Amino acid sequence: MITLIELMRVVRFGFSGGISTAIHAACVIVLVDFLGMDPVAASVPAFLIANVNSYLMNRFWVFKARSGSAGQFAVFFIVSVVGLLINLVGMYVGTRVLEVPYKITLAICVLLAAAVTYLLHKLLTFRERINHSTEVS
Question: What's the rounded Cα separation, in Å, for the pair 79 and 116?
Answer without folding.
Answer: 9
